[in-house]
Amino acid sequence: MVLLKLFAHIVKTIILTNIFEISLYQIMLGEDMSLATDGRVEKQSGQNRPVRPTIHTVAQKAGVSISTVSQVLRGKGRISDDTRRKVVKVANEFGYVQDRRAAAMRSGKSQEVGLLIHNIRNPFNAEVVVGVNSYLEEQGYLVYVLDALDDPVRQRRYLQTMLAGSPAGLLWVPSMGTDRETIDLVLARSSTTVSLLRPIPNHPFDHVGIDSTYGALLATRHLLDMGHRRLAFLGGDHNSETIVQRIGGFASAMFRVGVKPEIVRSCAETKSAAMEATVDLLTGHPDITGIVCNCDVVAAGAMLGLSRLGLNVGGDVSVTGFDDIEDARLLSPPLTTVAVDPVGIGRQLASVLLERKSMGNSPVRTVNLPIKLVVRESSGPPRTMAK
Predict the structure, then answer these.
(1) For residues 186 and 113, what is the distance between their CA atoms, to the nearest angstrom?
(2) 170, 113 contact by CB (below 8 A)
(3) What is the pLDDT of residues 166-223, one digit of tens each?
(4) Distance (Å, rounded) from C-alpha 301 to C-alpha 235?
(5) Which of 83, 89, 212, 298 is the most buried (most CB within 10 A)?
C-alpha cells in the first residue's frame, strides 16, 4: 500500500512538472500571456478567445521598436510624423491600451497620483478633484481618488493601498485624529506628498490651504457692518481645526464691535442636517437676524430651514456661506459667500506637487490661496433697519 501511494505521488509530480514546463514554454513564446503577435484570436481548450494585444504586437505590426511605440504613446521623443501616425493607427486597429503600471515598473517612474479626500459628495471637494484632475491630466498623469470619509482607520487602510503602488505623488486631506504612525507611514513610503486644508503638525509636507479665520471674519464683518448684532455660527465639527479657525474669525469680528459670540451650533455638512439645525436654532433664538455658515452646503440647508419657518432669506434672516461652489450663485436667493475657488485650489495643489518633484529636497512650504467676499442677495440689513 505504501509503495502504491509512493508511485501515485511520483506520477502526480511528473504530470505537474510537465504541465509547468509546458506552461513555462508557452509563456516564453508569448502564447499564454496574451503575447501572441500573429493575430487577435488564439485557440485554447477548443475555444476561440480574444488575445489582449501588447506593446510587442503593436511594435511588430508597425515595424518599429518597442521603445518607439512607448515614446509615441506617451507623446515623448523625437519621432517622425509618419512613424507616429503609423504606430497610432496600428494601436487603434488592435485596440491596444498601454498598461501604465507595467510601464512604471519597467521605467521606475509612475504616472499615477493618489488623492485622498473626505466626503466626495460635498460639492467643494468634488470641485477640488476636478481641478486636480484637469491639471495633472494636462501633464500626462492619471489621478485616482479615494474617499476616507474622515475616518482615520479607513484612511490608514487606503494610504497603505495607495502607497503600495509607489505612486508619483500623494495629495492628502488628513482625517481628524490622524495619528503619528500614519504620518510616519506616509513619510516612509511617499517621496512627494502635499497636504490640503488641514496642515500636519510641524509641517513635514508642503501644504496648500486658505486662511479660514480671515474668511469667517470677512463674512461676519459684512453682516455687522449692515447693522446685525444677533448672529449665529452654524456648521461643522468643532473638533476640526478648520472649523475652530472659522469660529475664531466669527468671534473675533463680534468682539471688535463689543458683542459676545454666544450662539455657535455644530451640525453635519449636509443640507438636511443644516435645515434641521436651523429650525432648532431659530425656534430657540427667534431674535437671530443673521447666520454665518461654515460652508455653502450648510448655508443652502439653512436657507431651506428658514423657508420651512416661513422666513425670508436676506430679509428676515441673512445667510452667508464659505467656498463659493458653483451652486452658490444658483440658489434662491443667490448666496453671499467667501469665495475660495475650489477648482483653482485643486489646480494649485497639483502644481505644488509637481514643483516638489522637480525641486527635490528644498524646504517645505505652505501656500495660502487668496479669498474674497462675494456679496449676493442672501444678505441684507436687519428687518428693523430695512424699514
Answers:
(1) 14
(2) yes
(3) 899 999 999 999 999 999 999 998 879 999 999 888 889 999 999 999 999 999 999 9
(4) 10
(5) 298
Q: Rounded CA gap, 249 and 252, in Å? A: 5
Q: Where are the beta strands (DSSP E) in the chain?
A: 41-44, 47-50, 112-117, 142-147, 169-172, 193-196, 206-210, 231-234, 263-265, 290-293, 318-323, 336-339, 366-369, 372-374
C-alpha cell at 126: 468634488
CA angle in degrees (0–180, nearest 5) for 177-180-181: 110
Of the candidates 203, 297, 220, the residue with the CA atom closest to the CA atom of residue 255: 220
Provide the mean pLDDT of the chain: 84
Give the pLDDT mean for 312-324. 97
pLDDT (tens digit, 9 = 90+) per residue, 89-132?
888 887 876 655 555 545 556 789 999 999 999 999 999 999 99
Rounded distance between C-alpha atoms, residue 255 and residue 52, angstroms: 68
Mean pLDDT value across residues 121-147: 94
For residue 31, count CB atoms less than 10 angstroms from its CB and return exposed for 0-12, middle for 13-18, buried for 19 or more: middle
Question: How many angstroms separate the Cα of 199 from the Cα of each of 136, 147, 204, 239?
Answer: 22, 18, 9, 14
CA angle 113, 117, 119 (to 5 degrees): 145
Give the Cα separation of 199 and 187 in Å (integer): 14
For the CA atoms of the chain, what is the radius of gyration?
29
Give the DSSP H/E element, type plus range, for residue 153: helix 152-164
pLDDT in tens, 268-295: 999 999 999 999 999 999 999 999 999 9
Angle at 165 between CA 164 and CA 167, to 5 degrees: 115
Check residue 41 and give its pLDDT: 41
- Which residue from 235, 315, 311, 319 is spatially nearest to 277, judged by alpha carbons? 235
Residue 74's alpha-carbon distances to 56, 69, 108, 137, 385, in angstroms, are: 16, 9, 15, 12, 64
